[in-house]
Amino acid sequence: NVNQVKKQDFSSSDINSFSSSSSNDNDISSSTSIDYSSSSSSLSSSSSSSNNNNKINLFDSSKNDESSDNEISIKIIDNSSGNDKKDSSSSKTQEIDIKIVDEKQPTDTEQKEYSPKPDGPFNRINKVYEENKAVNQYRAESVKEAMKFAWDNYKQYAWGRDELNPVSKTAEEWFGFGITIMDSIDTLFIMGLKDEFKDARDFVENLDMAKNTTIKVSVFEANIRVLGGLLSAYHLTEDPLFLKKAKEIGTLLLDAFDSSNPFPKAFIDVYTKKASYLRWTQNCALLAEVGTMFLEFEDLSLLTGNSVWKEKSDRIIDTLSKIKTRIPGLVPTKLKPEGTTSCAPAVTIGAMGDSYYEYLLKMWIYRDSAENYREMYLKAANSIIKNLYKEFNGVGFMSTTLINGNPESGLQEHLACFLGGMFALGAAANVSTDYKVNKEFMYIGEKITETCAKSYELSPTGLGPEHFLIKSNGEFKLSGHGQPIFFRLRPETVESLFILYRLTGDTKYQEWGWNIFEAINKYCRISSGYVGLKSAPDVNSVKDDRQQSYFMAETLKYLYLLFTDSSVIPLDEYVFNTEAHPIKIIKKTIV
Ligand code: DMJ
């Protein structure tokens, strides 16, 4: 009777590898719907429950994030004696406790019971999932085992530090936030790795972020990995600790902004609060760095009720929307801090540009009243197809960079392989009002995904290189051409495979993903963790010495989701940040 009421990787570290300078430059709940209307500073929220007209002022800073359990005791008088004639003496008085469960209390790490999502544009896998259930379960378990193995080794050799160096069994300190833990929490939760999740939570609880003395914390990386990871952990668990910590890192990141410029500086010393630029960019901002904060910053404002992050994010998108571009929607990669002009004309959808384009779409998927994002996305997407997409003999690929208006012919970066999933997701969400345009987006998404998967399939190790070339007869060239061809455990291809599988139900994406997983196990798993290869196509390649934090955040998460059923992180309920941390969509209708 108790009722429960109720980028060394591109982007930033890769960005640093372009640098000529030294390594110093390492140098409310889901039931609440939010009305963003058009005014950015007066968000209001109303409960979706029709009989509750309470208006919550989300931006009331006095609101306490950590509400507590309420227990009330009530008396129930039972008159049902089974006798028509009422006899008050036979009434039974019962005292029962009603526990009002606060929605933000931590939940168990158990998986929810399987209740498949209805078929629709974001889910076409129920039938094929059931048909191959045993295989799917075996594969999901295998990926889970890989996650546990990677985690256990990190725990043994690098606990609390940023990343594990498996060959030397040492730890890599990058900017001192235990990045691997922050990046892994949600994956551990999704996979139901309870003990590991508990260890991660304990670490987060005891971490005093303001005491970090790393001089140069990358604002971009801290945003996508630390803030993104904590927000996602909060969305999945509703444990207030994660929101408290997200607020902590979000507050520290605010020091990267000053009132005169819209863009944040690239680094922040959270201890002294001094911000600095990337030295090798001559104080210019990089598009991917400043254009990949919208989702995390808005979500933090929404969840805390403090508009400060959304205001920064609005100012950035506003500035970017006004920059004059040679090609509609394609913003130059290096920008003046005041945001009025670019520092150089080159445009890229690969390293240093990539996730800006991803976030234009994802902001429109995330919330209502995001027409500015949609328009900017459509302009960019159409220009990408027109200027960078090519098909040679049926092989479709993206040249990632436009220099002086000309595409770098035939060269594709692995980092740009996320575009397959991006184009397909936009199509499924009907980002264009023109049916034919969405159809074309889906086609491009499928083509890019296929090409990226092929770069793995054709490689003797089964692992695709960082760069590959498509010749004019459609042949793949996986080596040479002066660009790095390492394999760094990156996620972009398996990310697209996962998205395409959910959207089409075509099991070929699962097969390609499984082959990649097996190749990773064959060539990258050593006794003390997972490492990359210096040369992806070389079966005798020298291994690198790094278990990248995004391997557990992204690569293993997407591989796991490729073999789970449609109830696990449904694409109409969550949008992934660029580091694969799922954030709850607040848009009322997404298709
Ligand atoms: C990740 O940190 C993110 O996906 C980022 O957007 C791009 N690079 C790495 C993984 O390759």
UniProtKB/TrEMBL annotation:
Ca(2+) binds at T578. It is an enzyme of class 3 (hydrolase). It catalyses: N(4)-(alpha-D-Man-(1->2)-alpha-D-Man-(1->2)-alpha-D-Man-(1->3)-[alpha-D-Man-(1->2)-alpha-D-Man-(1->3)-[alpha-D-Man-(1->2)-alpha-D-Man-(1->6)]-alpha-D-Man-(1->6)]-beta-D-Man-(1->4)-beta-D-GlcNAc-(1->4)-beta-D-GlcNAc)-L-asparaginyl-[protein] (N-glucan mannose isomer 9A1,2,3B1,2,3) + 4 H2O = N(4)-(alpha-D-Man-(1->3)-[alpha-D-Man-(1->3)-[alpha-D-Man-(1->6)]-alpha-D-Man-(1->6)]-beta-D-Man-(1->4)-beta-D-GlcNAc-(1->4)-beta-D-GlcNAc)-L-asparaginyl-[protein] (N-glucan mannose isomer 5A1,2) + 4 beta-D-mannose; N(4)-(alpha-D-Man-(1->2)-alpha-D-Man-(1->2)-alpha-D-Man-(1->3)-[alpha-D-Man-(1->3)-[alpha-D-Man-(1->2)-alpha-D-Man-(1->6)]-alpha-D-Man-(1->6)]-beta-D-Man-(1->4)-beta-D-GlcNAc-(1->4)-beta-D-GlcNAc)-L-asparaginyl-[protein] (N-glucan mannose isomer 8A1,2,3B1,3) + 3 H2O = N(4)-(alpha-D-Man-(1->3)-[alpha-D-Man-(1->3)-[alpha-D-Man-(1->6)]-alpha-D-Man-(1->6)]-beta-D-Man-(1->4)-beta-D-GlcNAc-(1->4)-beta-D-GlcNAc)-L-asparaginyl-[protein] (N-glucan mannose isomer 5A1,2) + 3 beta-D-mannose. This is alpha-1,2-Mannosidase. The lineage of its organism: Eukaryota, Amoebozoa, Evosea, Eumycetozoa, Dictyostelia. Disulfide bonds join C417-C452. Its EC number is 3.2.1.-. The active site is at E221 (proton donor), D354, E466 (proton donor), E492. Its cofactor is Ca(2+). One of its GO terms (cellular component) is endoplasmic reticulum. Residues 10-54 have a biased composition (Low complexity). It is a single-pass type II membrane protein. One of its GO terms (biological process) is carbohydrate metabolic process. Coiled coil: none annotated. The keyword Metal-binding applies. GO terms for molecular function: calcium ion binding; mannosyl-oligosaccharide 1,2-alpha-mannosidase activity. Pathway: Protein modification; protein glycosylation. Residues 83-116 have a biased composition (Basic and acidic residues). It is found in: Golgi apparatus membrane. Residues 1-54, 74-123 are annotated as: Disordered. Belongs to the glycosyl hydrolase 47 family. Keywords: Calcium, Disulfide bond, Glycoprotein, Glycosidase, Golgi apparatus, Hydrolase, Membrane, Metal-binding, Signal-anchor, Transmembrane, Transmembrane helix.
